[in-house]
Every structure is written in C-alpha cells, then in structure tokens.
Design goal:
Pfam families: RNase_H. This is RNase H type-1 domain-containing protein. Residues 68-200 form the RNase H type-1 domain. This protein is an alpha/beta fold and 218 residues long. It is built from eight helices and six strands; from the N terminus they run ααβαβββαβααβαα. The chain has a six-stranded mixed beta sheet.
C-alpha cells in the first residue's frame, strides 16, 4: 500500500510544534505593534564605504574622529559553531564586557540583531556612568543593521525599537555604525574574541528564537 505524504502545511505545523518551547510567541504581529514614525525616526544607521586593506583602519578612525568623537562606543558581535550560538558586548570606555550563550536555533543574522538588543539593555542599565549621552553601537553585520528598515520584522526588531524609544525618552541618542570585520579595529577584534569565548558558557540565555530561523521560508 502506497502511503500518501501529508500536505506541506501540515508537515510544517508538526515541525513547528516540535520546537514550540524554543520559538518566540506573541498575540500580535510585530509590525502591527510598532509606530512606524518611531521606526523611521530612530534609524541613525551609518554604513561607511570601506576599501579592503590597511586603509580600512584609517577610514574607520577618520569617521569616528569626524562624526562620533564625543560618542560612547559599544561593540557587538556574534558567533556560531555547529549547534552552539553566542554573542558579546564590549565597552572600551568602561573596559566592560558581557557574554551570552544563546538559543542554538538562532541564525547568525538573528544573533547579530540579538547582540544589538542586548547592547541597548546594557546602555539602559549603565548610562549614568557614561560621560556622553550620545551612544554609538558598532557591528560588523551590515545586513543586520540594514534590516531594521524592512517591514518583515520579528520580536527582536520590536525589542530594539522599543529600547531605542525608551532611551530617547531618557535624553540619550543612539546611532549604529558598520565596521568591517577582521580589519584591525581593536574594539571589533576584542568583541569577536569575546563572542567566540561565549560559545563555551554552560548556561544558555532563556530567550526564544525567531520562528523563521527554524522555518526559513516563512
């Protein structure tokens, strides 16, 4: 007797059920819980035009000195190794670092966004120790930085935008900037090392993952 395969949607449903305790759930679609004016007004994202080679380092410092010399810098990065995922935050001003081992179902894209969200939590808890109310979050994931202007949003985007609005109400201005990875930029090199170290942390952050990390075609 030839067995008939289940329709694709039923197969997907059963597949999702097997991950139900590890996927973020909400009674609202994230894009519908946001004010799009806030979405646009909070987007201070800078994507420099780097040229490969030693000039990357010089270009980076020229941009920082010209545009962000009075900003409190915070670097973020993520790492993935087989079923292990992690991210880290590095604050060179306070010589402070935070490392997280996170849900193994996160894609590297979601990890990078998650690291930015955790950086905003870090700012919320420690901004009174900062010398500046201008914050610059630096990531080497260009695609994650640009994704915050898309309409296909998830709960991490939602959390980032809510955090930005909260910090703005406190009188803080947050900007984001892309740094080219592995270009000798000390803060980026340090946070990259920390993110790899975090893969060995035993305790895993309880945050659920994005459903599209498990079912990519949604």
């Amino acid at each position: 007797m030839i067995s008939k395969k289940d329709p694709m949607m039923i197969s997907c449903y059963h597949h999702i059920l097997s991950y139900k305790d590890r996927i973020a759930r909400s009674d609202k679609v994230p894009i519908h819980s946001l004010n799009l004016k806030d979405l646009k007004s909070n987007e201070n994202v800078y994507i420099p035009q780097y040229v490969s080679g030693p000039s990357t380092y010089m270009t980076f410092h020229k941009i920082i000195n010209s545009n962000f010399s009075n900003h409190h810098q915070i670097y973020t990065d993520a790492s993935k190794q087989l079923d292990k995922t992690s991210c880290a935050i590095y604050d060179p001003h306070l010589e402070s670092a935070v490392k997280y081992r996170i849900n193994g179902n996160f894609t590297i894209f979601s990890e990078e966004l998650f690291a930015m969200w955790k950086a905003l939590h870090y700012v919320s808890s420690l901004f009174e120790r900062f010398e500046s109310k201008n914050i610059l979050i630096l990531s080497d994931s260009q695609i994650s930085l640009l994704s915050k202007l898309e309409t296909k949003l998830n709960f991490i985007h939602n959390g980032i935008l809510e955090s930005l609005k909260y910090l703005r109400n406190l009188g803080l201005e947050v900007s984001f900037m892309w740094t080219r990875a592995h270009s000798g930029i000390p803060g980026n090199e340090k946070v990259n090392y920390l993110a790899k170290e975090a893969l060995e942390i035993d305790e895993i952050d309880s945050s659920p993952c994005v459903y599209s990390d498990i079912i990519p075609f949604f």
